[in-house]
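Contributing new complexes? Match this layout with flavin-adenine dinucleotide.
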Amino acid sequence: MQLPEGKTGLLAGAALAATAAGAAAYVYTNKLTCEQGVVVFLDGSKIGIHLGKCESIDELKGQVEEKLHIEDCRLFVEQAEGRPELSSSAELAAALASPALRVSGVLLLLATADSQPLSSTAQQAPKLLAIPAGPKPLPLVGSFLLYKQGGQGHPAYNFAANVFAPEKRAVWGDTVLIVLPHSGGPDGEVLKDVQPGLLDYAVATCDPEVVAELLARQDDFPKLWGRRKAERSLQAVAGNGLFTSSTLDKDWQVAHGLLPRAFNQIRIKNYFGVLLDKTRSFVAAWAQMPQGGTIEGVSDWLTCMTADAVVKAAMGMDMGNVEAKAAGQPLHKFIDAFRFCLKSALGRATVESEFGSLAAWNPFFDGAAALAKKKASALQASHDVVSELLERTRKGEIGGPQSVLSAMLNDVSPSTGDYVRLQNIYGQVMNLMIAGHETTAATLAWALYYISTHPEVEAKALAEISAVLGERCEPRADDVPKLVYLEACFREALRLHPAVGTVTRDVYADTTLKGTWFVRKGQRVDINNVALQRREDQWGGSFGDPNAYNPERFMPGAAEASGRHPNAFNPWGFGVRACIGSQFALWEGKLFLCMVLRCFKFRVPEGFARPLPSTADGGAAPTPHHLALRIWKRKESGAVLESISSQVAAAKAGAAAPAAAQKGAAPAAAQHGAAPAAATAAAEASHGTPLLILYGSNTGTCEELASSLAGQAAAAGFAAKTASLDSVLATPAGPAGGALPEAGALLVISSTYNGTPPDNAAEFARWLPKQADGSLSKVTFGVFGVGNSQWAQTYQAFPTQVALGLARAGATQVMEMRCSDVDSNDWMEAFDEWQREVLRGLLVTFGVNPPEAYVAAVNSGAAAGEAKARLQLRLLEASEPGQALSVETVIAQLRAAKPDGYHLLEVLENRELQGPGASRSTRHVQLALPAGEAGQYSAGDHLEVMGNNDKALVAAALKRLGLTGAERVEWRANIEGGSGSARSLGGSGGLSLILSVSDALTWLVDLAAVPSKRTVSLLAEGCPCPPEAAALRQLATEEGYKEKVSGQRLTLVELLGQFQSLSVSLDQLANLLPRMGPRYYSISSSPLARPGTCSISVGLVAFTTPSGRPHRGAASATINATPVGGKLLGSVRKLSSSFRLPQDPSTPVIMIGPGTGVAPMMGFLQERAALAAGGASLGPAHLFFGCRSSAEDFIYRAELEGYVKSGVLAGLHVAFSREPGASKVYVQDLILQQGPALWGLFEAGAHVYVCGDARRMAPDVRNAFKEMAKSCGGRNAAAAESWMGGLLEAKRYLEDVWAG
Ligand SMILES: Cc1cc2nc3c(=O)[nH]c(=O)nc-3n(C[C@H](O)[C@H](O)[C@H](O)COP(=O)(O)OP(=O)(O)OC[C@H]3O[C@@H](n4cnc5c(N)ncnc54)[C@H](O)[C@@H]3O)c2cc1C
Ligand code: HEM
Ligand SMILES: Cc1cc2nc3c(=O)[nH]c(=O)nc-3n(C[C@H](O)[C@H](O)[C@H](O)COP(=O)(O)O)c2cc1C
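Output block (do not edit by hand):
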């Protein structure tokens, strides 16, 4: 999110490229200050730089030329009727004075490389215009009254009616510039160098396209809080929590890595028991109301319900408000304190409202001081409650592993590696309180109001409840997702009455919106959700009046049928700042409505008019003003209510009374660390043996396997949880605070990276050897390793280390460590097998029986295939609506949903490195990096690039499927899952995207992969033709497979081509194939050399398979063929290893990088050159490079020889393996030759870097160095080994090697 240093440099370089190509850049002026800047259009990103004041046209031109490094700049005026050239200062002055130029007035700059009047590309450049003006602002108050006036009861509703009512939109449009004077805050702290006055201008919109753009360009439009007075007052009360902080703020970044996890799809299911308990209490309380009686203050009741639910679920404390309200007792002190704080922050607490009108007029009463005192004591009371919560969590009295407080106290944020600041925890808790209950309570109030006034909706809801629950009194956790109509009722209430009426974003740097409107750094963009969510064009049509309540709009298929824009519904906000509690709210809302509607009938009291949305009843979200409901117990609810009240009575008996809970002494059974009611219900069928599954994983494979295992384990009756190896150290699982659980079992699944642990297991790797022998004697464990045998020397190094370490410390192994070699095509089989066996072993060890369904699934073999998360693809019928999205849009949406996903990186340069006659190809590819990544990489890091299948493979697959490719497919991309699914672009659940079939086959699956033996067996099983089935079974045997499938590098489609009786659908094909995964490339540049960009050096993989199919590497061929200006899908991957230049540049460096292994060395050399230019004194550096011949593939020759000349490189040693007339030489031979000189460097503390082939080169090079230690250092074989071990340990011998 930070703008990288040197962005201006990038801009200049890019602008040069852009203008040379005849593209456009704009000069703008700020009418308030007469300062100018430049906006340069680069494909997909528009960035501004500041110019300062210019008095004359020459001065302006001079500045532009200097900033953009261009020579002959010419200016043209942007006018509706054309773009005449600007040639005198008088014309400039006139242009600047033009009334069309408001704050964001623009002139057009076109710097053409040729002498034509205007290059044709530039002629076609998009127009850059000011945001259209909205209703005329008034002096002093600007547009303020648009929020105040209108009698709607809430500012966002007033504004919607005053500005965005259909007839108003016809005049002003969907996006307008408004003026909010004096709303600016201390911007220097949030955003530096904002031009004065600009803050007064904001952009208000109800256009879903603008929302989509803000979502797609989150870095350009972050949420910055604390700039308006109201925001600062709220921060004074609610602290700097997730909701109320700026995206650029460290507090937000740290908490954003931690808190959302507590509310993800998996967690919320665990809260089911808590939610059920609380809803039961609620229903039991309302059951006490007389038949036909009126419940006044419905919103207050709902506030108690939702506040209790979120605090109990997320923090483990039962505030007991529902119970207290039912008993007529005072509410928990937090509620009053917090509500008062909120009220005063929103400016609604006055002397009159708090002390009465008499006090307000009493000259002897110091109202202001009394108000301030009341506020201070309310604030103190809220602080006290949070402190108490923290203290009790710390002592382990409340909380447990689910608690967000425990997470904040114990865990570091995976995104930043920091703990939440202690002082910030208060803010985070207050934010959760505000965001977490007011919103849901308001939505439930609206839903109840509408359901009780729409009998047809009520009837449908009741029918659904009966159908889902059948004879049961209450829903179970797995019923909740089935309550689709209730969900639609909840969502429709949220549409008409978004609890957050305005969602804001801010302009990070001068840029454009919708490609044409110019917006200035620091300006605010307000999305008016009320207007957006009632637009006739989005919500009308066959669903009727957009202002009417009709849940059908949210039934499955309705969004597609109506063709509405995906961003026309925005109640949860979007992108990285989207609501973290939406799933929680939906679960809570559906469960609540289900229970309440099943038991009661509601009607509004006679004469009760449609309520206004208002915050006057207290709280921050607009609720139906003074909502009251008449209540009747339903005739058929007797048994249900009886069951509920007995459950509540039982809970009460086992728990302390609400009054005690209020003092903070919630009973152990009520804490969510203990088994909640639903879990107990589930436990009837399952034994619930705890099982902790820990993973170590960089690219997500092991993480996905862990979650697959957790699913299987849960089916087998275990209470399974997954976590990374490191995270378990922060949240003690053992009873005495030990990290590992002593009850139940522990299973570990991990990979290895060049012999070292994955990033999220590094701590664990340090921790384990420190555990005393026998100290883990109560732990039962199993380990599964995932590795690649191409890393021959360090194959399975880390999982092996874990298995040995645990056993050494006394833990009992439930079964021998097993592993998979991902280099083999059927590595998943080994995992499936282990999964089945280890669970069986654990069932036996603990003497427990799995549920029958699991036994049946295992017996039928159904459980085996679960390991691979399904790729959810659904071919759309021609009649189904929805357009296929472009790949760019898909990527933008994925990124918006999962910000650490891939970017489209523009290719700035793509040149051949091999000599003219060479038979192979290696490309130097320079790429522009997005703002978030540009400043972050270091020389030595990797770039991940996502490949795609070549056209021939896609065509063959389409032919076999009988499709043209133009058909559309719905892909439910997984964004909730771990890094793995994000890394592979695939997965299940989450975002729903429509792609063309040909794009889906190009991007999502690896069509070139060889099918595994298990896939071949599956095909045999499903083959309807007996002779073909027999032939397939033969191919699934060890020899058949080796000879005719893997030996031929046969693809699945090729195989299917041989067996025509097999019919496969797109979905089946996709799920028989592995997902397309990223390829790694060592970055061959240093950020110091060309900021904002990086380069990679890519060898083209191209060969003909034994089956005769020409294979072109999925990633390398794509990279090879992407021209300058094209885009590649990729992302920087920061290395956790120490493959970095030594801190001290005077340390000697020895680099071994044959072939493309030279890539990181090029980065190191660039870095050294930049350091030297900055005055650093460099130690000697030697590079050992290897290639076939000097004419063919001596890549980077000129650059390397240049480094020798400049002294950056002390020695360049090139080994040619096929130089005409010379014998074969490899890098290891040259190392031996240079032995004595190198030995001297070792003695001086040299660091060694090896990059390239893992299989042969890396071991040979290690051996060469060991030889050198013998010949030059006088060591024997054993001492040479331990010398090498010492270097590895000290991280002075570093390998970054890969399987070729
Ligand atoms: C940490 C790391 C850093 C890397 N850095 C670089 C780098 O800087 N530069 C670089 O070019 N690559 C680098 N690679 C390799 C790169 O990631 C890719 O593996 C490579 O580009 C091939 O990917 P692809 O999608 O083009 O080929 P794919 O479509 O994946 O095809 C490659 C497959 O084809 C097989 N294959 C290759 N040649 C033949 C043949 N002649 N006959 C039969 N089978 C064959 C390979 O065994 C492999 O299974 C690196 C790898 C790693 C892990
Ligand atoms: C119907 C219920 C809810 C609605 C309508 C709602 C709405 C929203 C909206 C619109 C935002 C984004 C605000 C912005 O972009 O400025 C948001 C953010 C947030 N919500 Fe919710 N919310 C609801 C329930 C919840 C619940 C139950 C929780 C807690 C469990 C919660 C916690 C949060 C938090 C912490 C944020 C800030 C996230 C961030 O910026 O990183 N919300 N919510
Ligand atoms: C850069 C790199 C280094 C690797 N080093 C090793 C290694 O030393 N030993 C090994 O067995 N596997 C090694 N592998 C293979 C990985 O362990 C394997 O790809 C695994 O599936 C990754 O799992 P993950 O996605 O859960 O991290 C390496 C892979 C890469 C990309």
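Reviewers usually confirm one structural detail per submission. For this one: Residues 223, 242-243, 256, 263, 310, 431-432, 435-436, 439-440, 443, 494, 499-500, 503-504, 571-573, 577, 579-582, 584-585 surround protoporphyrin IX containing FE (ligand 2) (CB under 6 Å).
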